[in-house]
Amino acid sequence: MRDGSEKRNVWPKVKTELDKLRWHYQRIEDKFTPGIPDVNIHVPRFGDVWVELKYVEKLPRDERHNIEIGLRPEQYIWLRDAKKAGRHVHLLAKVGMGWYVWSDAGAWELAKRPSPWNELRSKAMQFDNVESAVSFVSRHQQT
User: Fold this and answer.
1) I need a labelling partner for 87 at 20 to 30 A (CA). Which of 8, 46, 48, 76 fits?
2) What separation in angstroms does the CA of 75 have from each of 36, 37, 133?
3) Which residue did the predictor score with more confidence, 142 or 61?
4) Are strands 88-95 and 39-43 parallel, antiparallel or unpaired?
5) What is d(CA 102, CA 78) in angstroms, rounded to the nearest whole number?
6) CA neighbours within 13 Å on the CB side: how many for 27?
7) What pLDDT, on a 0 to 100 scale, did the predictor assign at position 85?
8) What is the full DSSP assignment across 6-18?
9) Helices 130-137 and 11-21 meet at what angle, rounded to 10?
């Protein structure tokens, strides 16, 4: 998110779902800790989940064309290191009309730079709606 305006398209939808679930969450705007994800969610009987939010307005015309998710290097490092430490971390993006979740460092590596959409998509869990995407990130046990 270069100016944050794109994130405003994602956060309200995610927040609405979290409010429906009545889970404790914290939206994070930390200028002093580079790379920290946008949201920390406490899921009852599961634990904390960290989620970085992204938004891409349109899919490329051809799935072999590059798409830029916009994950900054410091965000990649935070996600990678947190996962190594045993935390539950995800990248959740609304791309076009779909919702996509990437939960591993290999996918996050691709999300740091323009990458072929078919390659990025193949590493994602895809959802038709925000409800399903939030449910997945809040319950998915990473290996």
Assistant:
1) 8
2) 6, 7, 20
3) 61
4) unpaired
5) 14
6) 11
7) 96
8) TGGGTHHHHHHHH
9) 70
Taking the C-alpha atoms of residue 18 and residue 14, their distance in angstroms, rounded to an integer, is 6
Low-confidence winner among 7-16, 85-94, 101-110, 111-120 (lowest mean pLDDT): 7-16
Matching CATH number, 1-95, of 3.20.20.80, 3.40.1350.10, 3.40.50.720, 3.40.50.620: 3.40.1350.10
Average pLDDT over residues 95-118: 94
Nearest to 43 by CA among 101, 83, 88, 86: 88
Map out the domains of the chain as residue ranges.
1-95
Q: How far is CA 107 from CA 13, 64, 89, 131, in A?
A: 23, 16, 12, 22
pLDDT in tens, 39-86: 999 998 888 999 999 999 888 888 889 999 999 999 999 999 999 999
What span, in angstroms and rounded, lies between the C-alpha atoms of 18 and 34? 25
Query: pLDDT value at position 29?
Result: 83
DSSP state of 139: T
Q: Measured between alpha carbons, how far is 124 from 68 in angstroms, rounded to an integer?
A: 15
